[in-house]
Design brief:
It is built from 15 helices and no strands. The chain binds protoporphyrin IX containing FE.
């Protein structure tokens, strides 16, 4: 098994990734096929590494003909060339790095939510639970990355704020995909990206498909729970509206709260995801309040008031509302 059975250009055909997640294919290769075993060393990658450690007398390799393989593999030169502060204010670097770190994590969280959604659509509850747990781990790191901005003062922020003009996290298409996957759908939110056809198409694709929660409700329905028909098939481009019928279906699930009830575990795993989303929104809100108070945002909104409305919205609403009645 070669963990790195990914072409040197870093691309993996989407099909293989999905099949890999679903356990349809193991990315199993021989040493000869593995692009990370130089020349396909005899005995496989493991044996090659053992021979190298032996000839190095246990020390790391110190000499390479070209770039270090590490720089090539992880694109380090490109990555470190992407922080381009526009002012001399030191806090601007932290702001740019925090933004970039979060964008990368948005992307990882999206992959994991999509994998969970696909597992649910395939009636694979254990698979979905595993992906939701991994998503939560990534969400925890995402939320912790607010620490990078925890010490930024309003005066520091003011010294570089003008340099980014109308740029705003509101224009993050990575974040918008996450909101769409959660069921917060709005075709209008694709408009800012219309000049970037590829991005707009990707967003439209997520808009038009069932989200993570939709997939869970469809699975509940297939498992015989009384999910209303208009939640099993609907116009997926529309925002998710709370439903008393859905709350009743989840309440029935909670009637058996033993660990053997996979649907109960699923509900709690979805709530773990939802709670982490809310925590991200709240930490964002606090960071905004701390650095710019109630001033208007760079993206054209009135700032705190607009953001707090979104932050107050429950993710997967019936999983919260049922708690008032069970
Ligand atoms: C202290 C630093 C930050 C401030 C003062 C700030 C401020 C704001 C404001 C005022 C908005 C509302 C839209 C607007 O008018 O601009 C907004 C939205 C947003 N920001 Fe930030 N932001 C900060 C850091 C970040 C970081 C590091 C990220 C990570 C990528 C981020 C992501 C977002 C997203 C995704 C939205 C849209 C939220 C939604 O649609 O509900 N922000 N931000």
């Amino acid at each position: 098994m070669c963990a790195g059975a990914i072409p040197p250009d870093g691309t993996v055909p989407a099909q293989s990734l999905t099949q890999y997640r679903q356990g349809v294919v193991m990315l199993s290769t021989t040493a000869q096929q593995c692009p990370f075993v130089p020349g396909g060393e005899a005995g496989g990658a493991e044996a090659g590494r053992a021979r190298r450690a032996e000839s190095n007398e246990g020390q790391p390799t110190l000499s390479f003909e070209k770039n270090t393989p590490y720089v090539d593999y992880a694109g380090i030169d490109t990555l470190l060339g992407l922080q381009r502060p526009r002012t001399a204010e030191p806090a601007e670097s932290a702001f740019i790095i925090a933004t970039q770190v979060m964008e990368l994590l948005f992307s990882l969280v999206r992959e994991r939510w999509e994998a969970a959604r696909d597992a649910l659509e395939a009636d694979d509850v254990p698979g979905a639970l595993a992906w939701l747990r991994r998503a939560c781990n990534a969400q925890d790191v995402l939320n912790d990355s607010w620490g990078l901005l925890a010490d930024m003062t309003p005066t520091e922020f003011n010294r570089f704020r003008d340099s980014f003009g109308e740029a705003s996290g509101f224009q993050s298409y990575g974040y918008r995909k996450l909101e769409f996957l959660l069921g917060n759908k709005s075709a209008a939110m694709i408009r800012p990206h219309k000049a970037m056809a590829g991005v707009a198409n990707e967003l439209a694709d997520v808009l038009e498909r069932p989200g993570l929660y939709d997939a869970a409700l469809r699975l509940l329905h297939r498992r015989g729970l009384p999910v209303p028909a208009d939640r099993v098939e609907r116009d997926w481009t529309q925002d998710y509206e709370p439903s008393a019928g859905v709350e009743a279906a989840w309440t029935a699930v909670y009637a058996d709260d033993k660990p053997g009830n996979d649907l109960f575990l699923l509900a709690e795993a979805l709530l773990d995801v939802a709670e982490r989303v809310t925590r991200w929104r709240h930490r964002h809100l606090v960071a905004v309040k701390r650095t710019m108070g109630a001033k208007p945002g760079s993206g054209g909104s009135n700032g705190l008031t607009w953001l707090s409305r979104n932050a107050e919205q429950d993710v997967f609403p019936e999983l919260w509302s049922l708690r008032s009645s069970v």
